[in-house]
């Protein structure tokens, strides 16, 4: 029998991860490998769980296929309802990799309903509109099976999602209202993940005046403030903010650079050793 019949590749590692499609995929969670970069990022995130005021906005910057989306899917499950089977699997995987890093995550969500997850993917449209739709959709699902009267916030979100434009102040007001309502449901916090943020930034660069870049700044600053239901923001990009500002004037490029300064940048590039770990896991063999 030839060698090619004895070695196969786990197809999970050959397809791209879609943040929204794979958010609840048990296959994605169970196959995740916490690399050294991921572990350092998990540790950094865990430091902000109980801090009153701390930077809670991160930009994960790395090329296609570097694991940003897989990390985000795993993180979102790690912060979900601790009774969820996927969350239990994520906790076990992280515990096996590094118990001291896993413990704060387990503690943060114990005796709670976990974090409220807003997962959106970039598209050539205003980010504010997509963000409000994402909040509204997630909120409807969150309160769907909960007993009691539904919060008036759901109607506000539905109306905002239909508006042709949503201002930065309106989005922040919705976040504050959401935090107030989630506090009543024993929710630990909010995790917002924006995959392919570059597509929103490219749209902003072509349609100056959408002001989504300033919305990002406002959200990052709001996340920094302490709350009983803290907001954490993760922006996934292939390159830094200012690289998407090509063609804009120098003053605008500087403004974009300042906004990026509100985010703690995490270069999502692994060492050769870590890449080999993933490659090793992707290969299955029958050489006996």
**β-strand amount:** 5-15%
Bulk shape: globular
Mean pLDDT over the residues: 87
Task: Name the strands of the widest sheet in spatial order.
Answer: 3-4-5-2-6
Q: Using only CA atoms, what is the Rg?
A: 20 Å
Query: What's the story with the biggest beta sheet?
Result: 5 strands, parallel
**Percent of residues in helical segments?**
40-55%
Q: Could you name the ranges where pLDDT drops below 50 across 5 or more consecutive residues?
A: 271-280
Q: State the end-to-end distance.
A: 11 Å
CATH architecture label name: 3-Layer(aba) Sandwich
Task: Spell out the helices and strands N to C.
Answer: EHHEHHHEHHHEHHEHEHE
Structural class designation: alpha/beta
Q: How would you characterize the overall build of this protein?
A:
- The protein is an alpha/beta fold.
- It has a single domain, classed as 3-Layer(aba) Sandwich (Rossmann fold), CATH 3.40.50.300.
- Helix content is 49%, strand content 13%.
- It has twelve helices and seven strands.
- The strands form two sheets. Strands 3-4-5-2-6 form a five-stranded parallel β-sheet, sandwiched between helices. A two-stranded antiparallel ribbon has the order 1-7.
- The longest helix has 18 residues, at 127-144.
- The protein starts with 6 loop residues before the first strand and ends with a strand.
